[in-house]
Amino acid sequence: MWMPLVWLVVIVALIPAALLLLRRSRVGGLLVRPAQGGGPRLVASLGLGPQQRVVTIEVGEGEARRCLVLGVTPHQITALHQWQPPEASVAEPPSGPVTGGGFALALNRFRRDLSGGSSGGDHGPR
Fold first, then answer.
1. Residue 91's pLDDT band (boundaries 50, 70, 90)?
2. Per-residue DSSP letter, 50
3. Which runs of E-coded beta strand occur in the chain?
4. pLDDT tens column, 32-76
5. What's the CA angle centered on 36, arms 51 and 47, to 5 degrees?
6. How far is CA 37 from the centre of its chain?
7. CA angle 73, 113, 70 (to 5 degrees)
8. Are 99 and 106 spatial neighbours (Cβ–Cβ below 8 Å)?
9. What region does 50 belong to: left with phi over 0, alpha with psi -120 to 50, or beta?
10. Average pLDDT in the 106-126 region?
11. Are 107 and 122 spatial neighbours (Cβ–Cβ below 8 Å)?
12. Pair 46, 54: CB distance under 8 Å
């Protein structure tokens, strides 16, 4: 008598749990469509720790287009750098998940340039 009610409660409880797991997985990130018409577009992302990331996004259109490098933590978002990309650098959004390979190299080059070009201040990924 109570068995169908128990199964109903179990199934209803599994739906939010499955959605949460899907949202946190890499597969869930593939379901998100890139922004259309000048909205923010993720260019690259690099995880620095369990809850810290450095992301590069592109915002705006035409002359107002800007690239932003942001430091993201659970409590705040900090603008680290911004620039206006040249028109030739407009690229299609990546078709697969964004990886940190090229972005990590560019970030290390940027750090080295900020520290005056000395190789002693450049700490690679740990």
1. low
2. S
3. 41-47, 53-59, 66-72, 77-83
4. 555 455 578 888 899 988 999 999 998 888 788 888 999 999 999
5. 15
6. 19
7. 20
8. no
9. alpha
10. 64
11. no
12. yes
Write the single-letter amino acid at 81.
H
CA neighbor of 94 nearest in space, from 46, 49, 34, 47 = 34
**Listed residue (28, 114, 27, 30) closest to 69, CA to CA:** 114
Structure tokens at 108: 């290390």
Kindly report the backbone phi and psi dihedral angles of residue 57, in degrees, each rounded to the nearest multiple of 5, phi listed first. -125, 160
Q: Provide the sign of the torsion angle of the four alpha carbons 101, 106, 111, 117, taken in this order.
A: positive
Whether 124 contacts 108, CB under 8 Å: yes
Query: What pTM value is reported for the model?
Result: 0.43
CA neighbor of 22 nearest in space, from 31, 34, 10:
31
Structure-block tokens of residue 89:
């650098």
Residues 31/90, Cβ–Cβ less than 8 Å = no
pLDDT score for 59: 87
Strand partners, 45: 55
d(C-alpha 66, C-alpha 83), whole Å? 6
